[in-house]
Amino acid sequence: MVELQGIPVSPGVAIGPALVLDADGYRISRTLIDANKADQEYARLRSAVDAVAKQIEANRLETSAVAGDETGDIFSAQMQMLNDPRLHGELRRRITTDLHAADYAVNRVLRNYALALRRLENPMLAERAEDVLDIEKQLLQQLGAFDEQPLSDLTEPVVILSHNLSPSETANLDRRYVQGFCTEVGGSGGHTAIVAKGLELPAVVGIGTFLDSVANGTRVIVDGDRGKIILDPDESTLASYQQRIKQSQTLSAQLAELRDLPAETADGTRIRLSANIEFPHETGSCLERGADGIGLYRTEFLYLASTEEPSEQDHYEAYSQVVSEMNGRPVVIRTLDLGADKMGHRPLAEQEYNPFLGLRSIRLSLRNLDLFRPQLRAILRAATHGDIRVMFPLITTIGELRQAKMLLTVVARDLKEEGIPHRADIPVGMMVEVPAAVVMLEHFVKEVDFLSIGTNDLAQYTLAVDRSNEYVADLYQSSDPAVLRLIQRCVDVADDWGKPLAVCGEMSSIPGRALLLVGLGVRNLSVPPLALSRIKKAIRSVSISECKEIAERVMTLDSARDVDVYLLDRLGVLVPELVVT
Ligand code: PEP
Ligand code: MG
């Protein structure tokens, strides 16, 4: 049994056999062969090596002809590595003595080479590590390792263990079979984490390098509450986790009874509790858990979850479905937030060094009007079916807000001229997720109908910490006093102007932090569907004065750690059922 610690990103426990994926999403089968097949397997490797050698030589000739011998020499170096006798000795030993299948041997041996080169911390040698990985890929290609489509042809329950999963890969996981997942990299605020919550898949990220030592089929427990995974658990550990699954099912059944009760404090302050969704089909689970509406519909997943770029009609159908199913409840449609860790079908920008500070979100939409216009048209058209509101993400300057609003007006005029049914007067809001917007909020607030704080990005940009980077995950805390002061300011400005303000970042789905937000004066929370019942339970268990006391005390503290310790302590007293032990 091996226990590994990572970052918890999506709650719950999953137990199942491991499906191990490599960095590029292919399967590293730790396949063993029969002793009598070893020679045949080694011969298979030899022919793969010959084929790759031919390919490298062809690359060398072509590159030398086009770019000169010096550039062509890159491939001479690759050829040298491919023919390295030590490499061949190691591969032969793995296949003929350890009885590893050729692709598994190639994967392990070349990865170890690359790792050793990188560890030397010599930039020249580190570059050679890339060559080693290039050779590995070519050999695996020759050996047919990429022919498998491990994620699209699942037939059995699995727990995915992967170096990384992008938000779109996560969105496309087959929920019928995938029980949970765990990745070597990633931080708690990345969009992969958000999708995992949307899909209700227990998940842990940022474990660090561990895939080398796991074979496919190993039994794994993913503890998404505590951010642990356990490989090959012993019987008593397994039994205790099975027990936890049962307890959590019992708690969920109890919480389900709150469905038709309002999210109201014990002394009668009503909180609007809405849901964040990524996919139209999630409205079912929002209604089942009594959501007051959709507070954040992340529409970019229309792009990420399909192989083709969505048309205006695709947008229209998705939004119409959501708003019709929500049956009169408000639906806040956030316009495309593509870029950074969410890339669509076509390259929308050159590779960026700092994509979270780059052409992302509203910036990208305003520069790609052929993407943005169809979406805005579809929003206005779908608004004829119910209470739709539009919200612009990542607004940093007043100019962006004005441009986006202007475009909305232009699109409404076009629809009118074309005689297409639509509503032009829908409420327009903005996400407050960049510190600059908080600082200038008095100016923004005049020009919008509502505000919604995106604490995921607000924490990232305030604390200068990449939300999806495991190395700085400990610094990424929406409970940091600096973030809390910005939130307090937003509440004050919104109150002064009588404009509704919501918090739709993940912060509002953590019970202690949700009570803090209520204490700070927030009256609209939007959380992933999975968190609805728990947050409703927390709200219904406290009085507004208890929340205010929490906020007053918290605003005297000077570190996220002290804030969280205090919040957990209060939660233990006020709503002990929700404390994960
Ligand atoms: C946020 O930043 O808090 C937010 C809700 O938006 P996203 O997580 O999609 O960036
Ligand atoms: Mg955001």
Please, what is the oligomeric state?
Answer: single chain
Number of individual domains: 3
Class derived from helix and strand content: alpha/beta
Largest sheet: 8 strands, mixed
Our estimate of the beta-strand percent is 5-15%
Spell out the CATH superfamily of the largest domain: Phosphoenolpyruvate-binding domains
Q: If you consult CATH, what is the topology of the largest domain?
A: TIM Barrel
* CATH second-level architecture of the largest domain: Alpha-Beta Barrel
Mean pLDDT figure: 91
Q: Name the bound molecules.
A: phosphoenolpyruvate, magnesium ion
**How many distinct helices?**
22
| N-end to C-end Cα span | 21 Å
| Tertiary shape | globular
Number of strands: 16
Order of strands in the sheet with the most strands?
1-8-7-3-4-5-6-2
Helix content: 40-55%
Low-pLDDT stretches are none
Description:
This protein has 581 residues and is an alpha/beta fold. The protein has three domains: 2-27 and 160-250, Phosphohistidine domain (Glucose Oxidase, domain 1), CATH 3.50.30; 35-142, PtsI, HPr-binding domain (Enzyme I, Chain A, domain 2), CATH 1.10.274; 257-578, Phosphoenolpyruvate-binding domains (TIM Barrel, Alpha-Beta Barrel). Helices cover 47% and strands 13% of the residues. It contains 22 helices and 16 strands. It has helices at residues 38-67, 69-82, 85-96, 102-119, 123-142, 167-171, 191-198, 235-256, 283-288, 301-304, 312-325, 362-367, 369-382, 398-417, 435-439, 441-445, 455-463, 481-497, 511-520, 532-540, 544-554, 560-574, and strands at 2-5, 7-10, 13-20, 158-162, 178-183, 203-205, 219-223, 228-231, 272-277, 294-298, 331-334, 388-392, 428-432, 450-453, 501-503, 524-527. The strands form two sheets. The chain has an eight-stranded mixed β-sheet with strand order 1-8-7-3-4-5-6-2. Strand 4 (158-162), helix 6 (167-171) and strand 5 (178-183) form a beta-alpha-beta unit. The longest helix has 30 residues, at 38-67. The protein is globular. The mean pLDDT is 91. The structure holds phosphoenolpyruvate and magnesium ion. The site of magnesium ion has 5 residues, from helix 17.
